[in-house]
Structures are given as C-alpha cells and as structure tokens.
C-alpha cells in the first residue's frame, strides 16, 4: 500500500467536516479498508479535573458528539502525563490494562481490542484517538504504524474541536450571564407579570400602549408601592429599546455631593476618591431607558443640570471636557405632587414641564380592590417558588374579604409583604390576616406581637425588630441559605446581620 495515498485520503476525511464526530465517521469509513476497526473515538485528558472527557465517537452506523467525563486516579493522571508513554499502544484485551478498562470500559461494553494513539500539541499531551474492534487480539503493530502516520491531522483536528467546544461553552455562559444581568437591570417584577392589566390597571395599560412605541419622556405618578417601577419596566419592555439597558436610579438615595457623578459619571482624579473613570447612569442607559425614581427628591441644584441634559441630550463627565451624547428614553416617577412642589418653589417649573409631557397616574390599590384576589394568588405562587414550599396554602373567604376591605396605605408592596408574612405564619396550610383590622389602616407593617406598654403605635425600628424576630423564630434562627431569614425578607444576609446588630437582635 502506498502510505502517501493512505495519508492523503485519511487526512482529507479527518479535515472533511467542522464537526469532529462527522469527521471521525468519514475517516472510519476509509480506515476500515486497512485496519479492522468497528469504531473510533476521541477523548481529552483533563489533568486539573483528574478526568478523561470523551468528545466524539463514530461507528459503522452513526457519529455522536459526546461530553462524557470519566474520573481517573492520581496514579493514572501521572502515568498519562509521562513523556515516556509510547505514542501508539495496542491493547488487545482491555481487561488487562487498568487505565483503558476504566476509561474505555465505561463507554464501550463487552470484550474489545483497542488501538490507541496519543495526541500531542506543542509537546503537551492532549488526549487520544482510539480505534476499537469487538473481540480479542484484533490489532497488530502494522495497524499501529498506519495510525501513527495520522498523528498530525488527528491532533490538529482535535485541538480545533476542543477550542470550538470551549468557545461554545463560554458563549453559553456569557449568554446566561447576559440574560441574568438584563433581568437584574430590569429589576422588579422579573417575570414581567402585571397583575390587573385587564382589571384596575386597564386605563394605565392603555396609556402604556399609546406611549411605548415612541421615545418621549414619561412621568409616572402614584403613591408609594403602587407599581411605578413595574409600569416603567413594561414601557421599556414593550418599546423598540427592549433589548437595550433599563437603568434605574433612585434620586432620593444619592447623597447630594455624588449626584453629578452618579448621573453623568466622572473622570479619573476628578475629586478625592475618584480613583478610576466611571460612567454615569446616562451613559449606562445609552440605547435604552433611564428610570429616574423619586424625581421629586432631586435637589434644586441638580434639577437645573438635569434640565440642561434633557434639553440637549448632551453632558460632560465630572472633571471632563468632552461633551457626550446619548440616546435614551427618560421615565421619571414620584409619589409627590410636583405641581405643589413647583408652587412651593422646591421643584423647577421648567423641569416639571419637560418631564410632564406624558403623565401616567397609577391608582392606589384601595381604588382597584378587584385586583386583590389575583395579586394575592400571584404573590402566593411567587413566594412558594422562592421559598421552595410544597403545595399552595388556602385562603378562607372571610380572610380574602378582609384583604379586599383593607385600605392598603403601602399599596401593592404592602400586600406582597403581608402575603409573605401570612405564608410564614400559616397553620394547617391556611392563610390568616387577623392583624389587619380597619383600625390599623395606617400601620406600615403588620405586627402581631404585643406592642410595648403604653404605646398604640410602634416606631419603625420596633416594627422592624419584631418582624425580623418573628421571621427568625420561624427559621429557627437561620439567617443564611435557602430557608434562612435573609432569603425570606429578600435582603442580603450581611445587611440583615448588621441590621440585627443595630436592633440588638441575636439569632
Ligand atoms: N400590577 C402588579 N403586578 C404584580 N406585581 C406588582 C404590581 N404592582 C406592583 N407589584 C409589586 O409590588 C412591589 C412594589 O412595586 P414597585 O416597586 O413598582 O412600586 P413603586 O410604585 O415603584 O414603589 P416606590 O414608590 O416605593 O418606588 C414590587 O415587588 C412589584 O413587583
């Protein structure tokens, strides 16, 4: 046989497909004319993982891309890494070779003979290509010599396939991360559910539909907890900017001295502590939506700069000179009456005019009590999923009536918290809301425990202390983890710990 022709024909097949399993299939079809093989496979040596990973195999009838990992011992790892291991090995009965019987034996059943070629790239052991045949003593040194001719093409094809696999894996990881980050950015009601869109929020949703496709500024008005952020999200998600970022900034939570840097970013060294360049929310939201929550809390000095940017869509980073332009939609929200603030002189009239182009008022929950049953079942299933509870609890009719007749000063957020609390306290799988009575209309958070002597109302701090304590009691003092208090209260465990410390609570 002319070995040049053999090499050329085999190489053409090894390089005949970008999919390594298909290339193996074509190659086997050719090799069978010269070597008595029933199948072929490639596996990769993963010393860090102490494992061998099968990536592809082919037999007479089919080719399969694989991802089968077989763990190996430290001794096996060391033996495989040895530079003295021969390039070609013939194992005419795999039961006699511990490494091969462990590795190949976990993929191929029955007594087989194996002809192995170690694949090296740049002096590093990459893995092996193996030919197998049913029965004992099927391979000879002549077969080994023929296979050895194909070292380079097999090594290159394997290295290429490996790179492709790793890229695919990185790609999947990145797209999962991307999706996760997008969800984080879109915040709030992650699942996009807007309960009441056909009930009490019908008018609001009509306004959303009118405005979503455009790029104009929207002002969301409504009491705290009515769902302004949820609606801002809905506008973003149904707009042509949906694939762009949704950046939320709470104007009331930024210290005055940092407002400019937070909104417009800063250059390195712009002020003490500006150790690196930072993009502000305007830049971060480029191509998407910027949600300015609690806009009424913005100090007058910052209002004037915001107005300038809204007019020109241009800004300069703190400490910078370059004027930057962004393509963003602004949605702002407030629970305050900006009109009253304008008359009091605490909000600029010209900014109010700018923001008030398309106002959308979200009604308080007490004015759309028809949505309460649906909101309650939504929060029950959401909380059950989050807490990993089995089965959904029941709500007696009298308890649902209690929820419907309550006035909900904290709106949907308060209802959500109440449902969660009732689920934690539930006995016999039944939800009760007996701490909600018409007299307690203005209690911010329901507190079932006795109140301190001589006081009808709890301070926020006391209410918080009692709530945290009751959750800790339910979790048996557990703070971290899936059934821990932090998860139930939906806050970071270290934040909870420091709050507990401040409130003098021990777990
Ligand atoms: N229609 C709704 N459907 C489902 N969940 C809702 C709805 N409205 C509000 N929520 C939930 O209620 C909570 C409060 O909503 P959101 O943060 O949007 O209120 P907000 O008006 O922006 O509050 P704040 O004025 O305090 O910023 C969130 O957990 C949100 O997911």
TrEMBL record:
Domain Sigma-54 factor interaction residues, every copy: 194-424
Glycosyltransferase found in the keyword field: no
SMART domains cross-referenced by the UniProt entry: AAA
Coiled-coil portions: none
Pfam family for this entry, one: AAA_lid_14
Entry keywords, A to Z: Activator, ATP-binding, DNA-binding, Nucleotide-binding, Transcription, Transcription regulation
GO biological process, one term: regulation of DNA-templated transcription
SUPFAM superfamilies: GAF domain-like, Homeodomain-like, P-loop containing nucleoside triphosphate hydrolases
GO molecular function per UniProt: ATP binding; sequence-specific DNA binding
Entries under PANTHER family matching the protein: PTS-DEPENDENT DIHYDROXYACETONE KINASE OPERON REGULATORY PROTEIN-RELATED, TRANSCRIPTIONAL REGULATORY PROTEIN
UniProt-recorded name of the protein: Transcriptional regulator containing GAF, AAA-type ATPase, and DNA-binding Fis domains
């Amino acid at each position: 046989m002319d070995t040049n022709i053999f090499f050329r024909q085999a190489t053409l097949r090894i390089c005949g497909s970008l999919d390594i399993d298909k290339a193996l299939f074509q190659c086997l079809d050719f090799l069978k004319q010269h070597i008595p093989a029933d199948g072929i496979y490639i596996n990769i040596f993963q010393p860090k993982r102490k494992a061998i990973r099968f990536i592809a195999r082919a037999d007479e009838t089919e080719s399969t891309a694989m991802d089968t990992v077989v763990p190996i011992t430290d001794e096996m790892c060391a033996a495989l890494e040895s530079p003295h291991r021969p390039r070609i090995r013939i194992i005419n009965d795999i039961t006699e070779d511990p490494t091969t019987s462990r590795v190949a034996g976990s993929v191929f059943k029955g007594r087989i003979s194996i002809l192995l070629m170690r694949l090296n790239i740049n002096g590093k052991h990459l893995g092996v290509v193996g030919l197998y045949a049913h029965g004992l003593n099927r391979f000879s040194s002549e077969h080994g010599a023929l296979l050895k001719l194909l070292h380079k093409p097999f090594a290159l094809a394997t290295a290429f396939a490996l790179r492709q696999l790793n890229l695919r894996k990185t790609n999947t990881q990145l797209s999962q991360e991307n999706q996760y980050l997008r969800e984080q950015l879109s915040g709030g009601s992650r699942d996009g559910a807007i309960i009441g869109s056909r009930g009490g929020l019908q008018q609001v949703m009509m306004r959303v539909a009118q405005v979503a496709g455009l790029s104009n500024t929207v002002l969301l008005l409504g009491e705290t907890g009515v769902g302004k952020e949820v609606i801002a999200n809905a506008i973003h998600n149904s707009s042509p900017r949906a694939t762009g970022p949704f950046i939320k900034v709470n104007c009331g939570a930024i210290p005055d001295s940092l407002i400019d840097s937070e909104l417009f970013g800063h250059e390195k060294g712009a002020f003490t502590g500006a150790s690196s360049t930072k993009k502000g929310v305007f830049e971060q939201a480029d191509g998407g939506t910027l949600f300015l929550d609690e806009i009424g809390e913005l100090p007058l000095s910052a209002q004037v700069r915001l107005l300038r940017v809204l007019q020109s869509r241009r800004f300069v980073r703190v400490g910078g000179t370059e004027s930057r332009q962004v393509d963003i939609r602004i949605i702002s929200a407030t629970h305050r009456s900006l009109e009253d603030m304008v008359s009091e002189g605490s909000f600029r009239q010209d900014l109010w005019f700018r923001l008030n182009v398309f106002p959308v008022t979200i009604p308080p929950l007490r004015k759309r009590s028809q949505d309460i049953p649906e909101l309650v079942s939504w929060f029950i299933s959401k909380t059950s999923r989050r807490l990993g509870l089995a089965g959904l609890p029941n709500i007696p009719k009298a308890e649902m009536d209690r929820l419907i007749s309550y006035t909900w000063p904290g709106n949907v957020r308060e209802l959500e918290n109440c449902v969660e609390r009732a689920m934690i306290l539930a006995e016999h799988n039944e939800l009760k809301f007996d701490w909600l009575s018409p007299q307690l209309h203005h209690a911010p958070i329901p507190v079932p425990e006795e109140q301190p002597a001589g006081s009808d109302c709890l301070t926020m701090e006391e209410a918080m202390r009692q709530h945290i304590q009751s959750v800790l009691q339910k979790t048996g003092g557990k703070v971290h983890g899936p059934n821990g208090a932090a998860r139930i209260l939906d806050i970071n465990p270290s934040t909870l710990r420091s709050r507990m410390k401040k409130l003098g609570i021990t777990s």
